[in-house]
Amino acid sequence: MTYDIDRHSEEFRLNWERFVHACDAAEAEGRWDTDGLGEMEGYYFNTVLGVILHLIITDGNVAEREVEALNRNFGFDYTVESMLELYYSVGEQIEGNYLENAKEALALLNRIDPAMADDFRDLLDLICTIVAESDEGVSETELDEFRKLAEGL
Q1: Which of 10, 13, 49, 75 is the most exposed place for a label (fewest CB within 10 A)?
Q2: Which residues lie closer than 8 Å to 79 by C-beta, 6 or more apart?
Q3: Would you list the DSSP string of 120-134?
Q4: Model pTM above 0.90
């Protein structure tokens, strides 16, 4: 299982890097409203982070491997305890609108560049895969959230 997590994490990192380069190009070409939405990379990073936090916490259990996968993919230094603290400080905002934020993010990308929207959707699919692989047991609640995310986008 570690091999799959490592392989999918590497795939995520490479795809994220390509996505960020495409974001930079879209900004440089004036296709993104930086004044109204901020930097494109930051906007999509926050969307991804909200989805990840929601998926990790949704079963009420934070596995060490889930936190390690998050740290490895984004260069963070969370512990299970600090992840829970972060979630409790912003969890209400994430719970209420993580799916709507992801839908809005995709809608913006579809208007700018449908290929980028497909790439972002693929990144979200990889996130679900990595969270599932890093969990110590995928609950029905998590499976429902994975399905909800996939069907909602």
Answers
A1: 75
A2: 67
A3: HHHHHHHHHHHHHHH
A4: no
Residues 94 and 114: their CA atoms lie apart, in Å, by 26
Mind listing the pLDDT tens digit for each residue in 103-137?
Answer: 999 999 999 999 999 999 999 999 888 888 887 66
Distance separating alpha carbons of residues 107 and 132, to the nearest angstrom:
26
The Cβ-side half-sphere exposure at 40, using a 13 Å CA radius, reads: 24
Tokens 């906007």, residue located: 43
Q: What are the boundaries of each domain within the chain?
A: 2-152
Residue with tokens 């982070």: 49
Q: For the segment 53-94, what is each residue's pLDDT rounded down to a tens digit?
A: 888 887 777 888 888 888 887 778 999 998 888 777 776 666
Tens digits of per-residue pLDDT, 7-55?
Answer: 988 999 999 999 999 999 999 999 999 999 999 999 999 899 888 888 8
Residues 6+ apart with CB under 8 A from 94: 50, 53, 54, 87
Q: Pick from 68, 83, 64, 53: which is nearest to 6 by CA?
A: 68
